[in-house]
Write a structure and sequence with these properties.
Number of helices: 2
Oligomer: single chain
Largest sheet: 2 strands, antiparallel
Radius of gyration: 12 Å
Strand order of the largest sheet: 1-4
């Protein structure tokens, strides 16, 4: 995981519900990002690259 965190990576930003966000935090190998100007509220999750993502990920909507 440290190699991934310290290196460059591609990203896709998705918009999810609060329930989807909480469920996604149960998937291993991730980092939860917080925003200091929002009292350190959790605002995003970054997932390590993997061969196959959980089935539910394909239903996440791309953020526009």
């Amino acid at each position: 995981m440290m190699e991934w965190i310290n290196g460059q990576f591609n990203k896709m930003v998705c918009k999810v519900t609060d329930a989807e966000f909480e469920h996604a935090k149960e998937v291993p190998d991730h980092v939860v990002l917080t925003e200091s100007t929002l009292d350190n509220q959790e605002v995003a999750i970054a997932f390590c690259p993997r061969e196959e993502y959980p089935k539910g990920f394909k239903f996440f909507r791309k953020y526009k």
